[in-house]
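From the methods appendix. Each design record in this collection lists the tokenized structure first, followed by the designed amino acid sequence. Records were kept in a plain field format so they could be parsed without special tools. The example shown here is representative of the layout used throughout.

RECORD:
FOLD TOKENS (470 positions):
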């Protein structure tokens, strides 16, 4: 038999092209694209289906420590399972360095949690919170060589935020090692100032989470991150951009020739701060940072995608259960929004939302959908061309989509560890009906057919996008 599997009769879509063709798969890789490919052990009929590169979600959080008494709703088993149901074949969760911990110690614990648990492939970004001389001088350069070729830094949060000096030092190491640097851009002091003032006035309900981190907080930090990266001459990725001000900062930097990239997420296209303003604690379901803004900000994020100011669309899946004292309804969170765990689930809904609201409604074309959902993630984070496209020699990571299927999003379709979806009741057109990871079908027509442990850890190359031009 020439092939293990042939996907027959579908329309293949890459970030560049759309064409009718069969896909021959052997040993987990794409071995041929063409017609009349001959025999295979298994034929998958893709008539009326789109054959897309499996989604790559380069911004998810699984099993991340999130504060006293708070437990993230997904570990690697449920998180990667939900990812597979959403048409994803690779995810990039974060490995958080806790204060006083070495990066190697942090990695050891995340690898132990992921080992044998994953349904889709996984690679780790590092989060540097304690940039000691040892971490920056020795550990980080060695880890980049070992395939951990991206890291995130925070400009806010107690225990996570770096000072400007620390940002510059960390950026310098990213530059010298060729790692991709991701920045969470919000001004810590401004948030603390506003939060204290709101609490003093008794404004503690979840909706004040949005009031405590308004647009200037994000815009200023985005501007500062860009300026600091310009001083060091290092490419950066501004993650989870929520509004026009921050988007325009990135656009201006790009127009000046700086290599500043941007990411936005479904919550900034679909939610607004009104979602946080609900009876009792219901608004806590939508507490994430930066917060959802308003309709004009949604429009700005669409423009950022349409005009390619943003290069990736990620979920920022950061799930907590709602009806749970270890989640959104933690006792302290009832006393103030300050203590409500930050983050919302979304790894399974990212792509159906972008497909329906973007492609079906004519805001972006199908090839851009593939670029935002897979190809650009692979290119920017050192996985291309093994991942992120449909080409001979690439891994057979494929999602079959029914572009016409109408679905009402319900939590029972999500298969994560949370107990709600922020998009409950949203009607979408287009749905991933089969997900294949390295030639093996893991989700077929709403059923999990793969098993834990098929997902592999992926060491990554240095991203060309992060290479310093000397
Ligand atoms: N930043 C993230 O990237 N995810 C969740 C919370 C946060 O602040
Ligand atoms: Zn962040
Ligand atoms: Zn995140």
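DESIGN:
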């Amino acid at each position: 038999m020439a092939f293990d599997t042939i996907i027959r009769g579908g329309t293949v879509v890459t970030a560049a092209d759309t064409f009718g063709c069969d896909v021959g798969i052997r040993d987990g890789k794409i071995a041929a694209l063409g017609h009349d490919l001959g025999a295979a052990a298994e034929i998958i009929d893709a008539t009326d289906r789109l054959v897309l590169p499996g989604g790559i979600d380069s911004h998810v959080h699984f099993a991340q420590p999130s504060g006293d008494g708070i437990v993230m709703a997904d570990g690697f088993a449920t998180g990667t399972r939900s990812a597979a149901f959403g048409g994803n074949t690779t995810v990039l969760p974060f490995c958080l360095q806790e204060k006083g911990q070495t990066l190697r110690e942090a990695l050891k614990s995340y690898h132990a949690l992921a080992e044998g648990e994953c349904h889709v492939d996984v690679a780790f970004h590092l989060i540097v919170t304690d940039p000691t001389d040892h971490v920056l001088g020795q550990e980080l350069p060695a880890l980049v060589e070992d395939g951990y070729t991206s890291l995130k830094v925070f400009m806010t949060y107690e225990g996570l935020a770096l000072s400007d000096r620390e940002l510059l030092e960390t950026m310098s190491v990213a530059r010298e090692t060729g790692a991709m640097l991701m920045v969470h851009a919000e001004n810590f002091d401004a948030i603390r100032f506003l939060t204290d003032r709101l609490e003093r006035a008794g404004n503690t309900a979840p909706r004040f989470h949005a009031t405590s981190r308004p647009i200037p907080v994000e815009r200023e930090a985005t501007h500062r991150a860009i300026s600091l990266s310009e001083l060091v001459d290092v490419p950066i990725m501004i993650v989870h951009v929520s509004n026009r001000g921050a988007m325009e900062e990135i656009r201006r930097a790009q127009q000046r020739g700086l290599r500043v990239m941007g990411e936005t997420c479904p919550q900034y296209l679909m939610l607004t701060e009104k979602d946080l303003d609900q009876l009792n604690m219901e608004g806590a379901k939508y507490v994430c940072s930066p917060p959802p803004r308003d309709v004009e900000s949604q429009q700005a994020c669409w423009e950022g995608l349409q005009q390619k100011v943003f290069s990736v669309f990620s979920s920022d899946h950061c799930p907590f259960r709602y009806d749970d004292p270890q989640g959104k309804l933690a006792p302290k969170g009832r006393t103030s929004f300050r203590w409500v765990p930050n983050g919302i689930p979304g790894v399974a809904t990212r792509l159906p939302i972008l497909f329906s609201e973007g492609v079906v409604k004519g805001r972006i074309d199908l090839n851009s959908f593939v670029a935002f959902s897979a190809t650009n993630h692979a290119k920017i984070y050192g996985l291309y061309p093994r991942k992120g496209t449909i080409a001979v020699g690439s891994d057979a990571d494929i999602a079959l989509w029914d572009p016409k299927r109408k679905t009402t999003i319900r939590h029972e379709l999500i298969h994560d560890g949370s107990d709600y979806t922020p998009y409950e009741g949203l009607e979408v057109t287009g749905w991933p009906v089969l997900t294949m990871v390295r030639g093996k079908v893991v989700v077929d027509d709403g059923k999990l057919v793969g098993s834990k442990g098929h997902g592999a850890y992926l060491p990554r190359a240095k991203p060309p996008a992060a290479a310093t031009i000397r």
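APPENDIX NOTE: Residues 215-232 form the longest helix (18 residues).
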